[in-house]
């Protein structure tokens, strides 16, 4: 019964291995879907970064244009008279508003860059998680391969034990046949000894009859004077006694041999009974082993089919893992490219921020000059009003 339980356990383990293989295949499919989704997100992120780069380029161009216009306005402001500074104030105010808009746009661009940078880091984390899951799936597939190999080795050992049990059964059957042959030989020998005992008993009874007849004749002829006849009778009596003694000795010898044969027969019968019980046990074990062998053959066919399925699934999983690895390499390359572009965009943003700071300083300087010019304009206006008043007076 134990081999049957072991075969059922092996079958259950193979079913569990198949279930785990299906589960790992589903995990690989999910990983591929997640990898495709990550690639799509990477493409979208790349598009967004490209858009930001274009916005940065446009902003830098606008900044360059504004700087050029500011320089021109400054030169014009320096060349023009103080009376013409009134309409220029509106222009400077408009330029300040434009700078405020540009600063706001730069801040928004910087915030978007920070947000995209965070999204890129999150994408890298998710990609690392996918890599870890794929490595776990590869480890699970390798463990399943090792488990299938161990099950095959257990199946081979079970077949070897079955062959050993079959050989032992053949040896036990041969020993039982030998015991049966010895028992029959002992029975024949016992029958022969019984026949010899019967013959010896008959001879003993005949000798006793002859002795009795001789005694009777001796009694009857005791009164006879024929000495020759007496001698003949005495000789017959001696011969009868000798035959009786020989018969007694042979009877004792035959009884001793009969006891030995009976003891041997009892031991042979015990061995035959033990051999028969062993044969019954071996036949039962052979029947169980035969059933297990049939189950093993069916399980072996199923195992071969499942092994082929496992090989195909492992091949497909290996191909998919290779494709996933290639996709991961492409994704990593894209991420590196995106990271480089992001760093470049950050450098451009920093440069734009520095330009804005310089521009802010220039605006502050121009505002200070504007305030100074306003003061000078006010003083000149006051001087003109005083001069007009003096002229009138």
Automatic annotation (TrEMBL):
Keyword DNA damage part of the UniProt annotation: no
Highest taxon, organism lineage: Eukaryota
Residue ranges the record marks as coiled coil: 28-383
InterPro entries, A to Z: Tropomyosin
Keyword annotations: Coiled coil
UniProt cross-references to SUPFAM superfamilies, sorted A to Z: Tropomyosin (SSF57997)
Entry annotated with the keyword NAD: no
A Pfam cross-reference name: Tropomyosin
Family matches, as PANTHER family: TROPOMYOSIN (PTHR19269)
Similarity-based family: Belongs to the tropomyosin family.
Protein name: Tropomyosin
Lineage: Eukaryota, Metazoa, Ecdysozoa, Arthropoda, Hexapoda
């Amino acid at each position: 019964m134990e081999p049957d339980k072991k075969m059922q356990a092996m079958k259950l383990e193979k079913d569990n291995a198949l279930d785990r293989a299906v589960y790992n295949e589903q995990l690989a499919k999910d990983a591929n879907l997640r990898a495709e989704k990550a690639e799509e997100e990477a493409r979208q992120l790349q598009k967004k970064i490209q858009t930001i780069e274009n916005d940065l380029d446009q902003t830098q161009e606008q900044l360059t244009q504004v700087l050029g216009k500011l320089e021109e306005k400054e030169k014009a402001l320096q060349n023009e008279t103080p009376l013409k500074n009134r309409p220029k104030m509106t222009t400077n105010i408009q330029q300040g508003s434009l700078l405020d808009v540009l600063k706001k746009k730069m801040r928004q661009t910087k915030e978007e860059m920070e947000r995209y940078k965070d999204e890129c880091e999150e994408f890298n984390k998710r990609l690392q998680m996918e890599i870890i899951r794929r490595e776990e799936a590869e480890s699970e597939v390798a463990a399943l391969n090792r488990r299938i190999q161990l099950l095959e080795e257990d199946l081979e050992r079970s077949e070897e034990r079955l062959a050993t049990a079959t050989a032992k059964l053949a040896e036990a059957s041969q020993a039982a046949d030998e015991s049966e042959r010895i028992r029959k030989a002992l029975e024949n020998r016992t029958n022969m000894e019984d026949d010899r005992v019967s013959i010896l008993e008959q001879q003993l009874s005949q000798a006793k009859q002859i002795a009795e007849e001789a005694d009777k004749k001796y009694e009857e002829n005791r009164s006879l004077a024929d000495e020759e006849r007496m001698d003949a009778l005495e000789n017959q009596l001696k011969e009868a006694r000798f035959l009786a003694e020989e018969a007694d000795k042979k009877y004792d010898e035959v009884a001793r041999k009969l006891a030995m044969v009976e003891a041997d027969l009892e031991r042979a019968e015990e061995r035959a009974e033990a051999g028969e019980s062993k044969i019954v046990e071996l036949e039962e074990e052979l029947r169980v082993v035969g059933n297990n062998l049939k189950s093993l053959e069916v399980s072996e066919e199923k195992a071969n089919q499942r092994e082929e399925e496992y090989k195909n699934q492992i091949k497909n999983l290996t191909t998919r893992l290779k494709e996933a690895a290639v996709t991961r390499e492409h994704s990593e390359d894209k991420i590196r490219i995106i990271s480089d572009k992001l760093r470049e965009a950050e450098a451009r943003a920093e440069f734009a921020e520095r330009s804005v700071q310089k521009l802010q300083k220039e605006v502050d300087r121009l505002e200070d000059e504007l305030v100074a010019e306003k003061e000078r304009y006010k003083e000149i206006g006051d001087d003109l009003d005083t001069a007009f008043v003096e002229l009138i007076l």
